[in-house]
Design goal:
The complex is a heterodimer.
Chain A: H1 2-42, E1 45-46, E2 54-55, H2 59-66, H3 68-84, H4 87-99, H5 106-118, H6 121-131, H7 138-144, H8 148-151, H9 162-188, H10 191-199, H11 204-233, H12 236-241, H13 253-262, H14 267-294
Antiparallel strand pairs in A: 1-2
Helix pairs in contact in A: 3-11, 4-9, 5-9, 6-9, 9-11, 11-14, 13-14
Chain B: H1 2-36, H2 41-46, H3 59-66, H4 69-100, H5 106-116, H6 121-135, H7 141-165, H8 170-177, H9 182-193, H10 195-211, H11 214-219, H12 228-238, H13 243-263, H14 265-278
Classes of the chains: A mainly alpha, B mainly alpha.
Chain lengths: 298, 279
Amino acid sequence: MQKGLTAQPRKRIRWAVYMFVIPAFLFHFIFITAPSLSSIYFSFFDWNGIGVPAYIGAGNYREMFADSEFIKALTNNLKWIGIFITIPVFLGLLTAYWISKLKKTQMMIRTIYFMPYIIASATAGRIWCSYFNPYFGFNSAFKAIGWTGLGSTLWLGNKNIVLYTVAFVDVWHFWGFIMVMFLGALQQVDPTLYESAMVEGANRRQLFTKITIPCIMPTFVFIVISIIMWSFLTFDYIWVMTGGGPGNASDVLSTLIYRNAYSRYRTGYASAISVIQSILAITTYAIMQVVKKRGVDV
Amino acid sequence: MKNRSFGSIVYTAFKWVIIWGLALFEIFPIIQLILNSFRPDTEIKKFPIGLPRTWTLENYPDTWNIGNYGRAFLNSIWVCFWTIVITLVLIGLASYALAKIDFKGRGFFVAYFLMGMAIPSFSHLIPTYYLFNRMGIANTHLCLIIIYTAGQIPFNLLLLRTFLLGIPRELEEAAKVDGCNELGTFLRVTLPLAKSIFLTVALLIFMKSWNEFAVANTYVTTDSLRTVSTRFVKFTTEYNNNFGRIFTSGVISIAPVVIMYLLMQNRFIDGLTSGGLKG
């Protein structure tokens, strides 16, 4: 009797539950997941986006691995990873460590460091382009103080340094985010650990290497893996500041996909590159989930 | 002893130089951006940095009118508004179910959205473009609203779910004992408790939709339909020789987000960073 009474409404609830989840699920599936999967299908076709797609098997992939543009773009993505897992992480960790001990000014500095992160990358990129303008930008300031070497550098026009110029701007935009992540992790560290270590006579360096580092290790690992994943996907700053140029000096996978899809009308080839990009990003992400689940051993 | 204190003085000085040097590095381009918007074009070209020698307000009406920013603001607000509303309804319901109700398939859905966060936008940018073409809604605000909403779902849903998991279930159980159904419980008990996190999520969606460039630039090509971020890039490409206007349109484009950030920075910072890790 009792059992029957409770079982009745439960059954109705079960159905209702799916009505809560299905709309969000379907919306995402139809407009994100399904199109993404269809990219895999399109990657086996030679297609300009308008006409009839022609099946060419692995042709796009074969072309890609022989394409010097693709190799260049992938290399730039790897350089991007190299830059971003070192500079922002180092700056972020160092400043977070210092700032975590401040009281009055902590909020203010955090606000300033984080500010570029909330600004539209398209806007910030363009503004920095103006600052890097060879005639009317910072260069005239460099010349005014006698640094003619710096003052005559073509920051966005020299193919040997253009990638680093854009990376510099993206670091400006990004590293405050990493700082706040580390700051959050540092504030989670149990203060009694420090107290008891100090009672036992540990010095500042020992406190840092024996307590701080191990406690923030999980955050550190997640940040590094996340950066690797985001670096495979980077687009906005490069597209707005250089469009991948000059030539293809600052191309990355995203700009290559964009150009092939929307200015060269090589939809099939662009899809194939996007499949490779997705595999790289999703694999990195999967590694992160596994690491997160298993915990980080130090 | 003396030696050690000298060392620590040097260390402290070094520390503060780095801290404030980096703060200057972060804020200087933004301050100079604002200052330049009050300088005449010729003065900026003569020297790009420094205080305005002659303050001028001329750049603002010029940029606003020539750039058609009134229209662009309305477009962006329209897109942001519907993206926020639809996303909050979808993820509000879903995160409630995934946090508060035990049902078959829950693990699957959580895993799905967790995986969904990893799907790069470039993997669906091209097919969705053709999908919208076939649906006959290419080059409209609707396709931006759809794609932004879809893209915002996984991250914000999981952020919301993490928060809801932290609210003890007893409150909802009590409401159900009193005869509320699931929807009633969600609306009357959970929603009021989670008001603050909903506001945070709304702000994050606003910021991302306002700032978004790649999708807006691809899907909307009619000038009068452009949102602020693509309007800005178009305008600064057309008037790339007038630095006064470039900097002014920069200020106009980032002002709404920056003002909201300064007013509610904790929401921005906590929302953007906590979700990032807890995924």
